[in-house]
């Protein structure tokens, strides 16, 4: 490049919120004055408006600048920044140096137009730059401490510190002498820096909804997601006019402001650190700062109920609870467990033991008939699948053609004979003999039925029954007619399909 040609440069400007002295317009003006005095041509600009300098994550302007530098296609040889603090107030000063080194390694120098060492590459300039970086970081730490202390003090007075009001509440702006100014809309900022904000009750119908949420949670034992679904189904609008979510309902049940208490510092993310929950001892609490929408006792009941629901139980503890529930009610099932306030959710037993039946067995309890029936149905379904597969295999091995059809458990053999495969369970009627019932089927030529032993749940024998035998209704297999039906009976599937 000829010495008569100006150096092409990009500028980077950033403003957070701490001072108009650092407005982007002010930075631009000073940078352009510097560029003019040095015969530098500004060809590109990168801007971060209202962005903290503590890290690079949310600074799209600086990230775009670094990306362009690393791509090797940058059309500038210099980056001009107003001062070290505009580059960043990184808490790790090495991070600021790292980003600057990334640019320098790509052949692009970073200079600070507002610093005395703006383009000084001497050891003294490097030392001054390091000191400035530490000063920038320390400024943020001091400002964070001062701001936090002020927020604690204002919370103790009764003023809300940032954030939205919450469903059922509204923010009221006060002048510095305590005169009400106006109720703030969602997302609206207070009118002046000296204004303060307090919480006041919102519309009456929102307070009614909050009390109803507590009733659904405590009396009807609904979960938070279930409550959200119910409110959405009824068309009840949330604070944001968006569908209710689990977290919205959770806020109603856990935020102290609904029972009249302001709590600050429950969670924190100081200096752009990860957001964390703080121990109760670190909270700043002001009881009675807000007009309560629910009683303190009701809030405490919801807190205790939530603790009961989320408590982690060992398997031994769950077994003891099951035994105690059985002693109290004389029997135990999912409905009884769900209705007993001393018991956790029935699904906790399912997750711990695989099923309620397995939990009952582990606790030495006799499961109720309905659960036995469900487990038996599962066992029969599994055996029926195995039986169907075995019939198909044997038919194919005997040289027949076999096709499955949409009808359940039905095979078409040799393209003409439809066979329905069933398992008959033992029946104990109040009158008459124990029997196994085979129901008539209109869509099959034959019914292949296997009898299931009532105690061992093993298959006893097999019957290949033509549809005409079922024309007049069900056929009942019992000890008294097995000899008469001997031509239909097979002791094994293999014998049914021949040698």
UniProtKB/TrEMBL annotation:
Domain Resolvase/invertase-type recombinase catalytic: from-to ranges: 8-158
Pfam families: Recombinase, Resolvase
Keywords: Plasmid
Recombinase domain mapped to chain residues: 189-312
MF terms in GO: DNA binding; DNA strand exchange activity
Alphabetized InterPro entries for the sequence: DNA_bind_recomb_sf, DNA_bind_recombinase_dom, Resolv_N, Resolvase-like_N_sf, SSR_resolvase
Protein's name according to its UniProt entry: Recombinase family protein
Organism, scientific name: Massilia litorea
